[in-house]
Amino acid sequence: MAQWYKISCNSCGYSNELITGSSVTAESLKDLNEDSADFKIFECKNDHELFTIDVHGNDFDNKCPVCGSDIEEVSVEKIDGHACPKCDNRTLKIEPVVHI
Description:
Radius of gyration: 15 Å
Shape: flat
Number of strands: 6
Low-confidence stretches: none
Oligomer: single chain
């Protein structure tokens, strides 16, 4: 199941909301097809910006969609204390967000 997260930096005020997880429900697993989404969080190796990509999408090529640089997956568990893409301090925090 997909989950939204707020990622923020206590040092500089950087803030971003990203989604991670699958759009597939337990009921539809037996009918899994290429239309299902699987969102993962990545970091651009050039500017260190964090963003979400659907790895099942046709345009996923393991490159940053903005600059074309290499990217690296960042698990939700490793974002706390990760370097901020804006100020480079290791003060990022992550918390789940509920969208109503």
